[in-house]
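thread: overnight batch results

M.L. [08:02]
morning all. the overnight job finished for the chain we discussed friday. pasting input first so we're all looking at the same thing
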Amino acid sequence: MTVDDRSIEEAGQRSDRSHFARRVWIAVTIVTVVFLALFVLWNATDIILVLFAGALLAVFLHGISEWVHARTGVSNRISLLVTVLAIVLLLGAAGWLAAPSIADQAARLGPQLTDAIEQLEARLGVLPLPQGQQQDGEGGTMQQLFGMGTNLVSQVTGVFSTTIGFVTNLVVVLFVGLYFAYEPQLYIDGFLTLLPKERRVRGRDVIDEVHYSLRWWLVGRLANMLIIGALVTIGLLLLGVPLALLLGALAGLLDFIPYFGPLISLVPALLIAFANSPTQALYVLALYLGVQFVESYVVTPIIEKRVVSLAPVMLIGSQLLLGVLFGFWGLLLAPALMVAGKVVVKKLYVEDVLGDHSVPYITDERDDG
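M.L. [08:03]
and the structure it wrote out:
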């Protein structure tokens, strides 16, 4: 091998080492950036969830204002103002009519639940226990179990207590929703500028589909809430259960959270009914099961014709996961996040990457009329 050949070989080796070093540095940089991005996202999850809740509110307000705009011809901003004023007046009228009764019942809910738990323990505490399960000087294993149940119920009812942080988040959601609804294109165009020019049309199409799906999902949830709240209230009144108006309103509000909301709302109703008599508690249980049957097999199939269909296992799994990771906001927003996520995955992965345009994500054909 000549001197020139050795020089060329050494130069090639140096070039390979330099190329390898550059690749290593690029890989390290990418991993570091991804790690930092995930770290920031994880620590900002609460903020992101609150912003998403504001976006949901904006979708709701924008959908109503579009309906007003289409039928009156006024500008979008005027129709939004009319929408907000109409909602405020409607809530004010409902509050003026129902607030005194609900406030009075809410004040009595805590003592009623405490009495109900004590009566439940007293009723079940007198049952004979198997030999060997009694504890010296203590109420026995049964009392310990219901002591744990008392703590659990207090934690569940604590979800409904108003805290400064929760009120602050609600205020943020309100203002974010109003700003998003007032100038949606400003924020959409700003987001699309982050995409490559050739992908901006597709990005706008995905945003439109997410908006459409979330709008009809919200319509479906609100319709369910009204129907469930009315049915439960009427049923509890007919059964003579105390605090029927408050328990019915609670059932309607918590129905926004599929599966878990009805279970949570059942707990106080069942406890209060059991304090009156075990028979009434069975009637209340039958009432809630019947209402859920009507919702699952009558109301929901009719409403979900325009809504993204979500498999129950996927929905429950996402609620459990986000609820454990992010608490109340995660549990509350998990269904809406699943709706948006399914549309994004279908559009950007199933259609664009796999090239499959045959997979439906809405249970019926879209009809914008």
